[in-house]
Amino acid sequence: MRFIKYGFAIIAAISVASCGGGSGSSAPPVVVAPPPPVSTGPTWTNGVFEPASNFKSRCETPRAGTSDLAGSILEENHWLRSWSNETYLWYNEITDVDPGTVNVPTDYFDLLKTNAITPSGNPQDQFHFTRNTEEYQELVNSGASAGYGARVALISASVPREIKVAYVEAGSPASSAPANLMRGTEIIQIDGANVVDGSADILNAGLFPADPGETHTFTVRDVGATATRTFDMVSQTVTTLPVNVATTLDTPSGKVGYLHFTTFGTDSAEEAVYNAMTDFSNAGVDELVLDLRYNGGGFLDIAGQ
Q1: Are the C-beta atoms of 95 and 118 separated by less than 8 Å?
Q2: β-pairing verdict for 162-168 and 150-156
Q3: What CA–CA distance (Å, rounded) separates 305 from 116?
Q4: Pick from 236, 240, 235: nearest CA to 296
């Protein structure tokens, strides 16, 4: 978003002596009107927050076809600061950093969180991140995003770290050769960085590729194995299925439906659950196991159903 400065011309009101003879009076003094103050944008006072609505939609680079308004990076940062103060759960644990000292809004947003550590040694806030708007809309509309089709579980997010595969999407790079990942597979190394104590930047870049077509090298240990194996995985645009598994189990007490529901956050989630429930009803299911492990949330209207 580009900040527009308004320059103000200094207007001098000059009085001219009347024509004609006779008067010996001198010309009136020149009167110069003081210029109005030039706006430099919002200012920062530690602990004082303007309403986030004052900066809403102000962007340095407004996007066509949106409600974006011309603004500045400073206004973007002020919106992030005020919005975090109004909505963030641990708002009183945020260090109030001057928005004018950070030139990249995403970098500024990274600062707007608690740095507290839980008794288990993990960050209190493990879900503080940004996402490209276009990528997010694609994910919501179709469930598609760049990746391998594997959901990982951080058994320990701090050193010594431990990461295992939670589940994989059928037909994805993670579930296909040479990866053939399964639930419980432990990830040992990514691109030469040890999971236990290696570079977090390298590990994150390998685990969460930004674009399709990225190649990363993984070393893993399969469930029940003692040896490790190494292979390359290439990221693709993978569609996340909101219902990963829907099956009927025969038990001594009757038929039980098992539904693994991975997200409330895609437009297809409601239909997927409806179809699964219809199948359960047709199969005569008496009881239901609803598995919400690793479900990252999503739309409240779907969750409320």
Answers
A1: no
A2: antiparallel
A3: 34
A4: 240
Which among 156, 160, 177 has a CA at the least distance from the CA of 168? 177
Strand-pair category, 186-190 with 193-194: antiparallel
State which amino acid sits at residue 199: S
Identify the CA nearest to 268 among candidates 233, 244, 284, 235: 244
- In the three-class reduction of DSSP (H, G, I as helix; E, B as strand; rest coil), residue 23 is classed as coil
Q: Is 303 exposed, middle or buried (0-12, 13-18, 19+ CB in 10 A)?
A: middle
CATH number of 146-239: 2.30.42.10
Residue 48 vs residues 97, 104, 116, 240: alpha-carbon distances, Å: 12, 22, 23, 42
Q: Is the dihedral of CA 145, 149, 154, 157 positive or negative?
A: negative
Q: Where are the domains of the chain?
A: 12-111, 146-239, 243-303
Q: Please state the pTM of the whole predicted model.
A: 0.60
Label residue 76 left, alpha or beta by phi (over 0 means left) and psi (-120 to 50 means alpha).
alpha
Which DSSP symbol is given to 117?
B
Write out residues in the chain with pLDDT < 70, as ranges.
1-40, 142, 301, 303-305
**35-48 pLDDT tens trace:** 655 556 899 999 99
